[in-house]
From TrEMBL:
EC supergroup of this enzyme: transferase
Superkingdom of the source species: Bacteria
Any GO molecular function: flavin prenyltransferase activity
Family per record: Belongs to the UbiX/PAD1 family.
Name of the featured protein: Flavin prenyltransferase UbiX
Pfam families found in the cross-reference section: Flavoprotein
Amino acid sequence: MTKIVVGISGASGAIYGIRILEVLKSIGVESHAIISKAAEKTISYETSYHLDEVINLADFTYEQKDIGASISSGSFKVDGMIVAPCSIKSLSAIAHSYNDELITRAADVQLKERRKLVLIVRETPFNLSHLQSMTLVTQMGGVILPPVPSFYHKPQTIEDIVNQTVGKALDQFNIDAQLFNRWSGEV
C-alpha cells in the first residue's frame, strides 16, 4: 500500500495540503499528516474547513512537537512526503537539517532515506536565501514544486488551479488522480 506523509505548514495556501489529503483519501492512499500551529491559523483564516475536518481526512495525524512519532524514523517505511504549502521557514529548516519540529524532521528522514520529498513552496518573489535553500534541497534529492498554474487546460475556478498543482505533486509519486487535463499537443 502506498503511504504518503503530508505536512501542512503555516504559509498561505493551506488548501493545497487539504486537497492532497482529500485526494489521497478518495483513492485509498494511506496518509500521515502533520499540521503546524501556524497552519491551523491559516486553515481557519483562508478556508471554510474546521481543523477537525482536516484532521479526519488523514489516516494518521501527529503533533508538530512529537519528534518521537513513527514518521520521524527512517525505519518507518513510507513512499515519501509532500509539504503543502511549504513556508520559507520550513524550507530553510529542511535545507539545513534543523529538525526541531516534526514536519522538518520527517522531511529530513525522506532525504536521508533517498525517498521522494516534494515541497510546494509558497512565497513570491524569492530572494537569494530562498533560492539557495531550494538549491540545497534539490541537490539533496528533493523536488521544489511551487504552485505555478498552467492555463492550457483553461481553468475556470480556483479549485481547477489547486487541482492542477495537486495533480503535479502526486505525479511525483506516480499517482495519477486525474485532477486536470494534461497537455496533448496543439489541436
